Each structure stands twice: as C-alpha cells, then as structure tokens.
Amino acid sequence: MPSFPGGLHAGLVVPLDRPNVDTDAIFPKQYGRSTARTGYGPIVFDSWRYLDPGDLDSDHSKRRPNPDFVLNRADLRGATVLLARQNFGCGSSREHAVWALRDYGFRAVLAPSFGDIFRQNCPLNGVAALVLAPAAIDRLFALAQASALRVDIDVNACEVRAGADASRFALTAREHLLLTEDTDWIGATLAQRARIEGFERERLARQPWLDRRLPG
Q1: What pairing do the DSSP bridges indicate for beta strands 150-154 and 159-162?
Q2: Domain containing 79 — which CATH number?
Q3: In a 3-state reduction of DSSP, which class is residue 31?
Q4: Using CA atoms, how far apart are residues 148 and 49, in angstroms rounded to an integer?
Q5: Residue 190 forms beta bridges with which residues?
Q6: Is 125 a member of any domain?
Q7: For a Cys-Cys bond, which of 55, 106, 124, 136 suits 167, CB 3.0-4.6 Å?
Q8: How many domains does the structure of the chain reveal?
Q9: 175 by DSSP, 3-state: which?
Q10: Residue 139: is it exposed, middle or buried by C-beta count within 10 angstroms (0-12/13-18/19+)?
Q11: Is residue 144 part of a domain?
C-alpha cells in the first residue's frame, strides 16, 4: 500500500532537534548483519533511545528507554512524521536507515537538507524526504515544542500544513509516483515508457548508424 494514498498524509510529528544526524545514528552498525528489510522499528535511533546497549539478539522490550529522548515521549507514540535539522541522513549509504524509519512508522521526514543518497533511498521505500525552507522548519519546531503537533502533507499540492501555517516543497514526478502508487523504481521507470520510446525514435533518426548490424 502506498504511503500517500490519494497524495495525502496526516500525522503526529516527532521533533528531533539535532543537525547532521548520520545513518549510523539512525541504524547502528551492529544490526547490519541482518539481511531482512523489516523488523528494525525497535532499534531506530538505538543509541539515543535506550540507556543500555543492544544487538541482534536483544529483547528490546526489556531494554531501558532513555526518558530524555524525544522518541520516548508518551504523547508522541504513533507519530508518523519526523521533523529534523540540516543534513539529515548524512554519512554512509546504509539503506537500512530508511528501512528502520519506515518500520517504526514514519512516512515523512521534514528537513532543510538531507544526505544525497539517503534522500534518494527514501521514496524507494515509501518515505517522503521533503526539503522545506529553514525558516519553515524553524516555525514547525516552535509549534512542536509548544505542544504535540499534527501536520497534513499533500504531495499533489507540494505543501505541508500545520493549522494556518503552510510550507512548500518540491517533488519530482518519479518521487510522486513512488509515494502515491504501489510501485518500485522499475515501475516508476516503465511509467515513462512513452518518453523512452520517443527518445529512441529521435536517436535513431539522428544516429541511424548505431543500429546497423555487423555482417556475420
């Protein structure tokens, strides 16, 4: 099922007020030996989320949660939107980081900037990595710190709304398709079949010698 059916998502916001959050902080390396794509929700932000260390054999339900970490706030349980600062998802190209966010329940991350590979991985796994202006991020943090904040995200109108506050973002056609349809990267590419065929016809007319077969 797509993350944004009809292009819309409404959710509770977790304000993670830290810049330069790297993929090892999102998904620590000791869990990388697993090749599964699911089951990582309990260990997202592991070293900040718990007071004791964990590994693949840990029973995370018995670990001690860090009461000072925002993800452990009782009023933010069930949140599906992560609000972050600049350069979120920097560091390695670890796709597990996106899997962990998705498995926790996040469907969107709002930040002024992202690590490039992390941002590319997000829509492929049903997570919208949305770049908002720094001033818009500041406003949302102020609202989230005052009380639990809910936002409405419209990927058709490319807008995030928090009450009367509205912020714009940009989204490519491929990203929109990945978020609103039950498809993958190959499906998103095949959706451009008409453009691909048009390019092939134009190329053949311009460079016909490239299609000449060698004798024998």
Answers
A1: antiparallel
A2: 3.20.19.10
A3: helix
A4: 19
A5: none
A6: yes
A7: 136
A8: 1
A9: helix
A10: middle
A11: yes
pLDDT at 186: 59
H-helix segments, the chain? 23-26, 46-49, 96-104, 116-124, 134-146, 173-180, 185-190, 193-206
Q: Residue 140 CB: number of other CB atoms within 10 A? A: 22
The residue assigned the tokens 């600062």 is: 85
- Entry pTM: 0.85
> Range of 90's domain?
5-182
Window from 51-65, 122-136, 147-161, 169-183 with minimum mean pLDDT:
169-183
Scan for tokens 């390695």, then name that residue.
92
Tell me the mean pLDDT in the region 98-102.
96
Please list, in sequence order, all residues whose beta carbon lies within 8 angstroms of the beta carbon of residue 207, skipping any fewer than 6 positions away. none
User: How is the beta sheet containing 128-131 ordered, strand by strand?
Assistant: 128-131, 108-111, 81-83, 8-15, 150-154, 159-162, 165-168
Spatial CB neighbours of 28, under 8 Å, sequence gap ≥ 6 = 43, 46, 47
- Assess if residue 213 is contained within a domain: no
Give phi and psi for 44, each to the nearest 5.
Answer: -65, 135
Q: Is 97 a domain residue?
A: yes
Could you tell me what percentage of the chain is helix, strand and coil, using 3-state DSSP and rounding each to the nearest 5?
40, 20, 40
